[in-house]
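Please produce the structure of this protein holding NDP.
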Amino acid sequence: MSAPVTAREVRLAARPNGWPTEDNFEIATVTPEQPGPGQLLVRNLVMSVDPAMRGQMNDKHTYVPPFQIGEPLTGAAIGKVAASAAEGFTAGDLVVHTLGWREYALLDATAARRVDPELAEPNAFLGVLGAPGLTAYAGLFEIAGLTTDDVVFVSGAAGAVGSLAGQLAKLHGARKVIGSAGSDEKVRHITEDLGFDAAFNYKKGPVGEQLAELADEGIDVYFDNVGGDHLEAAIHNMNDFGRIAMCGAISQYNEAEAQPGPRGMFQMVSKRLTARGFIVLDHFDQYQQFLEHVGPWVRDGRIRYEETVLNGLEKAPEAFLGMMRGENTGKMLVDLR
Ligand code: NDP
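Below is the modeled complex.
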């Protein structure tokens, strides 16, 4: 395999104000270059679709730089080395890297990590054994300090991060694990397939009331993927000395203006709660430990994972918009093969 004559990439066409649409993306055709010294040309096979990309579509530097108009988007991808000018890599090697959203990626070999196809199928390294998996692991153990006495609530529980957070909590003997998700089918999936003790459909009634009904002993750990009404409801139902791992706030990402925070914040004081935000990028030093811990459970089926896969680079904007609307169960991916 060597560099093809042309390949496609997805670019940011315009910045959204509120909910993005297909018009915010454009597909462009480019000519991939041959790798220079120390570089790899990678044929991307599968790419990740992530909520964090919504933040990068805004003209604001947060923990990652914003996308630039007219430039290709980025995100995790698995690909096969098409041409290598770097020691230690040869054509055909399977690697994970962060230059997705394009059919071919030219990157420094130092930015590529080889994946072990014996451990799991390649897609898993973008989800349950990739950054979303490490997010669940770090959030639950390092940030929330999970113990076997804990009642745990996970929002976004049918998604890539949430589905693993709930299953890890169960496998580590948490007293009770409650999840929330946006459809009855997802609620069925997380209780019947993933082993959560209880779950509710947040679209069917007030989050606070539904949570209170299931969490009759209160909650000790809240793994927050959603923010907004879910965060308010969790604070209201927390037990004394409860811990909140603030992972994401997807209910807020498409708001054109910043929204007011949760009501009842004095409970942070009266209940002596801890809430701590975290970013997975700060936890990659734990990746090997995570892989050794969680990999065998994925291989022997004790941890289950779902994927929602759209086919073809041109489907990437639809996949992103669909994920924002909750059309995915488990990890949202785009297959480029
Ligand atoms: P998911 O696979 O969970 O996909 C996103 C899901 O969010 C959708 O399927 C949808 O499910 C749900 N959702 C969308 N809008 C709302 C809403 N208004 N209220 C409640 N749920 C909503 O994505 P990820 O697992 O990749 O990410 C989950 C969260 O974790 C996100 O907030 C993300 O930003 C965060 N994250 C944080 C990281 C970190 O380093 N801190 C790293 C990776 C992710 P439903 O049908 O249930 O509504």
